[in-house]
Amino acid sequence: MSFLEIFQYTRQDSIIHRLDPRSKLFLTLVCAIISLLFLDIIPLLIIFASLLPLLAAAKSLRRWAKSMKGLLVLLVFIMVFNTLLSTGPYPFSYSVSLTLRLVALMTSFSLFFLTVHPDELSQALIQMRVRFEFAFAMSMAMRYVPTLGHEAYAIMDAQRSRGVELDKGNFVQRVRNIIPIIVPLIIVSIRRALSIAESMESRGFGASENRTYMERLQFRRRDWSLVIVSLGVLVTVLYLRFIVGLPDLFLWNIGF
Amino acid sequence: MALVKFDDFSYKYYGADSLALKKINLTIDNGEYVVITGPSGCGKTTLCRAINGLVPRFHRGYIAGHVYVDEKDTREHEVAHFAAIAGLVFQNPENQLVTLNVEKEIAFGPENLGVNPVEVRRRVEEIIDLLDLEHLRDKHPHEMSGGEQQRVAMAATLALNPQILVADEPTSNLDPKSAEKILEIISTLNKRGMTVVLVEHRLDLVAKEATRVVLMDRGRIVADGTPTEVLVADICQDIGVGIPKATEIYKRLNAKGLRLGSVPLTGEELALLIQEGTV
User: Fold this and answer.
1) How many inter-chain contacts (A to B, CB under 8 Å) are there?
2) CB spacing of B108 vs A139 below 8 angstroms
């Protein structure tokens, strides 16, 4: 699952990491919208090329490249199938641009998720007027994913040592083998949830209407400038795309 | 009036067959260090839960009698009301850490109660300093050992500035060294004036520091007194409580007619007594 790492926060100290999550979200959305505006190879390549320096600024190029390698199979798959099934005049060219668009979209979003700590994300949501309970549920889900993983492995080991052969048999058999893992896992999780709730209750969770926050996110000058620059880029691109129209050079395609 | 007062308190969990607590009468005063011990299922955990109102507020059940904490009836106030009076530390540290780093964890309680952010920051720094957590500040719960997790859990409870710390077997999932460290912290807190209620099986580690030992069995308090009084009583062996080795030696010598001057709780005390005896 290494390709999922492209959406996983990495602890770093970079200009991008230090930005406010809200301004980064804006940047990501602008990048995503721009990628969705085009379906030609040259403009998408330009978008892609301009995303790379941003990733480099976030000191995350290597990680990005690693997960992209994991994604290569999927990308080739998409390309082949689109070429075979597409009904357009230039199927290969079309599927190359589709793939490029997907990569550009993923890169834009990974720019956000690679550099925003889950805590910052939930704080950003709270300050965007999402209810604390929902934002906190999200950050707690992230907190307990690894715990649940450990538990699943422990249960698998326990069942194996009692003679359950988890990796044997045909597909149906393997699906059935999930049952002796999933049932204990659910029961254990419910118990754990009760115990967590007890601890949170003891520490006054949900007690005060006016919950305070030790650290609040602050929009600084750099965040405002990022938002203004992204907005400017978006408006320019929209103008070029819809009012001026792209020059023929940009509409070049591979030709088959 | 006492800080905690159980007044003929009985409790049965919803759906359970027998009473978890039977007619408990117990008062705990300011500054005491009370160790509660007894076989599993004897009601120790329920007793702890009753101190901050989790019983009967969080766990549904049948109730008789009253518990007064800081002169307030736990029947009439929310758990959150007692959060700043009685802080609970539970057995499993992993289930007490709900945020993604240590600072946030410590701030979680005071934030919930709406404490001013400046004050929250001050408390966080104070407690990080007090419990020596500086190197863990930015760590995810998963990057810490069990002992470190439990220390953070305790820090998170202390951030509420409770008057009384209730710890329900905080060391049972830990290795001996981390356990010792946790117990050391608890005893230091007690020396600084905090009232402590500790559920613990390893009496040899806590008997010396405790001011009082409460022995429970099947929902009742069967012995209550200073460590030396309770631990020499025969009832300890009857219900299977592991008394400190030094105390056991004292009792066996006593049975053979060899009387030592006082009851030793640790090996050191025993050695001293024997030294005095032979000189």
Assistant:
1) 104
2) no
What's the pLDDT tens digit per position in A47-91?
999 999 999 999 888 888 888 888 899 899 989 998 888 888 888
Q: What is the average pLDDT score of chain B?
A: 92
Residues A44 and A83 in one domain: yes
Q: Do A192 and B95 touch (CB under 8 A)?
A: yes
> How far, in Å, CA of A134 to CA of A125, rounded?
9
Say if the Cβ atoms of B94 and A147 lie within 8 Å.
yes
Number of domains in chain A: 2
Pair (A96, A17) in one structural domain: yes
Instruction: List pLDDT tens digits, range B113-140.
Output: 999 999 999 999 999 999 999 999 989 9
C-beta atoms surrounding A133 within 10 Å: 10
- Write down the pTM of the prediction: 0.86
Residues whose CB falls within 8 Å of the CB of residue B156, separated by 6 or more in sequence, listed in order: A203, B96, B97, B105, B106, B108, B109
B160 touches chain A (CB under 8 A): yes
Q: What is the DSSP letter of B211?
A: S
Residues of A in contact with B153 (CB under 8 A): 199
* Domain assignment of residue A10, given as a range: 1-116+221-256
